[in-house]
Write a structure and sequence with these properties.
5-stranded mixed β-sheet; single chain; globular; Maltoporin, Chain A; mainly beta; disordered N terminus; 25-stranded antiparallel β-sheet; about 625 residues
Length: about 625
Amino acid sequence: MPVTRIITLIAKLLLFIGAFPAVAAKDLNDLLELDLEQLLKIKVSVASVGSESIKDTPAIVSRYERSDLEKMGISNLRDMFNFVPGVIVQHAITGMAAVQIRGIDEAFNQKVLFLLDGIPYHQPSHSLIPLDGIPWESISHIEVIRGPGTVFHGTQASGGVINVITRENPAKDTLLAKTGSHQLREASGYFSEKWGEAHQFYLGGEVRRQEHETVAYEANFPDIGLVVDDIDRKQEKDSLIFKYSGENTNVLAHAFSDKNVGINDAYADYNFYTFDFKIDNLFAPGSNALVKKEGRGEEDFRLRVGTEMNYRHSEQALWTLGLEHEARSLDRYNLYNAEQPDSELATLIDKNKTDELSVYSQIDFTAGKWHYILGGRYTAHEQSGNQLSPRLGVIYSYNRNQTFKALYSTGYNAPNPVQTDINLSGDVVGNQDLTAETVSSFDLAYSYTDSNLLFIANIYKMEAEDFIIRRYSEPLDSVSFFNEGVYTREGAELDFQIAFSDLKIFSNLAYMKQGNTITSSDPDAYRIPKVTSSSGLTYKVTDSHSIGTNMSFIGERSGLGAYTVFGFNYTATYGRLDVIANIDNAFNKKIKNPNNTSQNSTLAALGNVEAIYQLGIRLRF
């Protein structure tokens, strides 16, 4: 059966079972003849030197527009990434967000490389990423590589790469104000100014305050027993982004601070990228501590410099050679009495500085319908040694719409200072014998794109060596870090997007064979669901009114039951004014996530436990 006929049948089925039967009554052939060209023209830049279509790029990549997901009821960056197949963004015990890609995660996101407009962005001691620090109105779209990054990506890309692309449309300045349940107050804006033909300035900002639910946590203390404590969760964030684009110069500046309260109180000031946090009941009930940098943490920084040469031998052959040096500096981390913040109790991590030098090269060659990738990245890390990470790829273009891919890549990830040097006896202790972890992935993928349709199916096999895990150590009587992960995981993913004149439908599915199983060789597998799925649609009722919905399903894991969360959105447009009404977790599902701060912990990290209502007004000018 021809592929176009199969896809047409799928589209008809989705329309038939969808929530809007009036659309199903339309003639599908007329819809397919619309000159949309949206999905066929979508480009991604996260996996290559330049921009390529999703079907041609030599990686497993998903891309989603903020405007599309917003109309489906998604209103923050965490939930945008959570919509991607094989990706889970969950509340961590700390109150922050932990990103899991194909089952790989870490409490502070040390295994995920975060890019802002292609620039690596993470904190030097804990490897934190600014998931809550990008102004909502400044976001254009997201791109996600599932699996190890390419030769262009260095440390922290063992699980995957996420790239937030900001807007560059000078004709669409916007200002958004929101209010909602749990005392939500939010204001976000994005503005641009053009000077002459060669100079463009962009400025975005956001302020958000929200009180979340009061939730109860349970913990066992030696000689005391079970203690139950209520936590009043909340979020506060302020962010600012500035961009300048000139004829030969681009400048990006970003600063933000955010405060999340989970089982402990954490905030980060990313002007110079430090991270302080308060821990309630650290040693016993009522014994609270504050962990922060000495002074203001001015020595916390990452400095990356490099150069890249691209030589095009012909239209069919491109050779890339690059050199990068990154210095990571860390100020002293101290433990203080929370009631006496100037009273130092102990030094947890001493000052240090680490250098990483990388050389990478790649040959990109096209011969007829065949596209070949051959490359590698050599990394010399001051503490973790040297590593060569190869990359191979073969892409066969069956016709204008279809490609087949066979891809192999290896991700390298050096331990961060918390994993090697932290010393908080009785709670968490680092391991200075840690070495870098490697994750290799082999993918087979099929892609089909048409003027209004995108369909990707892929299977993968991952192998990890010296994988850094966090678990309780009896000799240390503390949580520590070990190179104990040597495992193989296999899975499959589907990604489907279709767009008509009045209707868009996105749906995806991810499966991992080893998910939610207990095995000594892969203890983390028990925290991974076998199946996850996300779907969303938006329907333009009239020229001025649209409705949308989204669904996220997370399968059973770590003894916690599966759950499905629904969201809904209504948007009314009056000239330059949009009125937006949104419901998240519409049916009050109580979300529980495994505690990824220790494999031995039965403590569950709570997500939203009731519906969240939002009402917003956007002005476009």
